[in-house]
């Protein structure tokens, strides 16, 4: 199981995390996971993932931020 | 936890862009009027030139940009369904543009018929816009302080437009119509609702979301997010009591009401500057600097008002209201609008292109949508123009350079925004060509 790729977008200005995520999606291998840490619920990203054939799950962390796990469907 | 944005409800890109690309042009025209008329335009707030310039800025620049943004923002932030956004934009946009041209020309040439045309045009345009917006904002399931404040702002726009239409009709029919209110009373209330109830309320509502999310600051304190809109609404209602029979405009408590309003505005400016000083990222982009400039102008406005109250000889000067007007309109509102346009247009370009091209043809980086140097150059010119406009209020001989600088700044903004729209169109065509090519390829093989 490869190490998940991580984008910590908590200190980034939107939509920089979104831009980085879209760039990473193109090179994500089957079974590989992209993890994003964000201060908000990334609804535009979910729409992109739904359209582009990726599955995701989102968890609310204790500090109020979101942890989103993304894989190829 | 910060509020979220949803782009699934976003209207077609042409809906907001037609408003954004028209707005700066009329700022440029206002600047040219100042340069052309010279010191005569700024003798007092009642000079035809000052009234024409003011309405070109508040209607054709601010209202255009704010209506375009609101059509986008309400759909995205409130997840609200705007009724047929293409149709609404196709009707409202040309009517606002024509209405403001009628109004500005009516002031300059003092033609009654043009006042009536302006009243009719605005009543139609804003009647449709306000109905659609009110339904969308009342039906949205979204909650939160931003939504409540946006509703108040739309109500503020309604009051401003109703009073504005009554005023324009009164000016158009002044021989035939005896208004129950004096013109001064109507103007006092119209200006207060336009500046405080619509424009400032909208900036406050938007700031609750935009400042923490895009400028990476802590959130506004909850007590402040409640106090500002409630306090502002109370101030505006008390100020509107002058419309009651026998109330008049010179009551001592009325100046206290305005002082309370100015203290609220100053508190909002200080809170925003304080939050911005605690942002998580040190690097300051143009949008942040525009916001800071706007908040400093708002502080300057509140401080100037208090000074004019304390020194009636200064406050009673014919050009004192122009000083306040320059701080409020180009200083506060145009600075926020310009800063927001530089954030909104690249963002919308990116999102709409991403939606069309998917991960196969990713859009250009958002920072490449408008060159940083061009945005910074225009921003510097805007603040130079603002200083020149303030200086021209003190020394009217500076009207020519102030008008030209303001006009040039608006044209530069227009050029930068056109560049973003052209980049969008170029990339969209490339995506379409690639899609057409890949559809044709299997047929050929």
Structure description:
The complex is a heterodimer of chains A (73) and B (445). Chain A has helices at residues 16-25, 43-52; strands spanning 5-8, 34-38, 54-60, 66-72. Chain A is α+β, with helices and mostly antiparallel strands. Chain A has a domain at 1-25 and 34-59. In chain A, strands 1-2-4-3 form a four-stranded mixed β-sheet, with helices on one face. Chain A is globular. Chain A starts with a strand and ends with a strand. By secondary structure, chain B is mainly α. The longest helix of chain B is centred in the C-terminal third of the chain and has 46 residues, at 399-444. The model of chain B has no long low-confidence stretch (mean pLDDT 91).
In a nutshell, what does this entry contain?
The complex is a heterodimer of chains A (73) and B (445). With 73 residues, chain A is α+β, with helices and mostly antiparallel strands.
Question: What percent of residues of chain A adopt helix (DSSP H or I)?
Answer: 25-40%
- CA radius of gyration of chain B is 22 Å
Largest sheet of chain A: 4 strands, mixed
Q: Return residue spans of chain B where pLDDT drops below 50 for at least 5 consecutive residues.
A: none
CA distance, first residue to last residue of chain B: 54 Å
Number of helices of chain A: 2
Radius of gyration of chain A: 11 Å
Shape of chain A: globular
Strand content of chain A: 25-35%
Largest sheet, spatial ordering of strands of chain A: 1-2-4-3
Low-confidence stretches of chain A: none
How many beta strands in the DSSP annotation of chain B? 0
The CATH superfamily of chain B is Cytochrome c oxidase-like, subunit I domain
* Global outline of chain B: globular
Q: Which second-level CATH architecture of chain B applies?
A: Up-down Bundle
Distance between the termini of chain A: 17 Å
Helix fraction of chain B by DSSP (H/I, runs of at least 4): over 70%
Please work out how many helical segments of chain B DSSP would assign.
13
Largest chain interface and its two residue counts?
A-B, 22 and 25 residues
């Amino acid at each position: 199981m490869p190490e998940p790729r991580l984008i910590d977008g908590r200190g980034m200005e939107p939509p920089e995390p979104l831009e980085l995520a879209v760039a990473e999606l193109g090179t994500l291998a089957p079974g590989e996971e992209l993890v994003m840490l964000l201060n908000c619920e990334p609804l535009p990203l979910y729409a992109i993932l739904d359209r582009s054939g990726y599955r995701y799950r989102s968890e609310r962390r204790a500090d109020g931020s979101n942890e989103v796990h993304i894989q190829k469907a | 936890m910060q509020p979220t944005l949803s782009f699934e409800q976003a209207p077609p890109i042409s809906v907001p862009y037609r408003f954004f690309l028209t707005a700066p042009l009329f700022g440029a025209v206002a600047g040219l009027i100042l340069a052309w008329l010279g010191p005569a335009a700024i003798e007092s707030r009642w000079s035809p030139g000052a009234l024409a310039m003011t309405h070109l800025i508040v209607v054709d620049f601010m209202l255009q940009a704010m209506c375009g943004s609101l059509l986008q923002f309400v759909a995205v932030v409130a997840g609200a369904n705007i009724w047929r956004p293409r149709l609404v934009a196709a009707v409202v946009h040309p009517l606002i543009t024509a209405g403001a041209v009628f109004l500005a020309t009516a002031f300059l040439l003092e033609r009654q018929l043009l006042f009536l045309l302006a009243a009719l045009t605005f009543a139609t345009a804003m009647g449709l816009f306000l109905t659609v917006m009110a339904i969308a904002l009342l039906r949205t399931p979204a909650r939160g302080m931003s939504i409540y404040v946006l509703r108040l702002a739309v109500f503020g726009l309604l009051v401003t437009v109703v009073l504005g239409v009554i005023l324009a009709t009164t000016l158009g029919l002044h021989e035939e119509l005896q208004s129950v209110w004096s013109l001064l009373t109507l103007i006092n209330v119209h200006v207060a609702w336009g500046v405080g109830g619509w424009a400032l309320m909208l900036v406050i509502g938007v700031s609750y979301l935009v400042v923490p999310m895009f400028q990476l600051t802590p959130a506004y304190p909850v007590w402040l997010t409640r106090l500002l809109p409630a306090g502002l609404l109370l101030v505006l209602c008390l100020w509107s009591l002058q419309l009651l029979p026998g109330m008049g405009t010179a009551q001592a408590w009325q100046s206290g009401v305005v002082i309370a309003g100015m203290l609220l505005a100053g508190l909002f400016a200080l809170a925003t500057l304080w939050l911005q000083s605690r942002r998580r990222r040190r690097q300051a982009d143009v949008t942040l600097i525009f916001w800071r400039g706007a908040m400093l102008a708002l502080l300057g406005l509140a401080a100037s008002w208090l000074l004019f109250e304390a020194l009636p000889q200064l406050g009673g000067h014919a050009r004192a209201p122009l000083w306040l007007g320059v701080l409020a309109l180009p200083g506060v509102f145009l600075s926020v609008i310009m800063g927001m346009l530089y954030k909104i247009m690249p963002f919308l370009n990116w999102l709409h292109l991403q939606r069309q091209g998917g991960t196969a043809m990713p859009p250009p980086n958002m920072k490449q949508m408008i060159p940083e140097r061009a945005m910074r150059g225009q921003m510097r010119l805007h603040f130079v123009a603002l200083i020149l406009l303030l200086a021209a209020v003190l020394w009217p001989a500076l009207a020519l350079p102030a008008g030209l600088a303001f006009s040039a700044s608006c044209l530069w903004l227009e050029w930068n925004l056109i560049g973003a729209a052209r980049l969008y169109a170029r990339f969209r065509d490339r995506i379409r060509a690639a899609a057409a090519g890949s559809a044709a390829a299997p047929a050929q093989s």
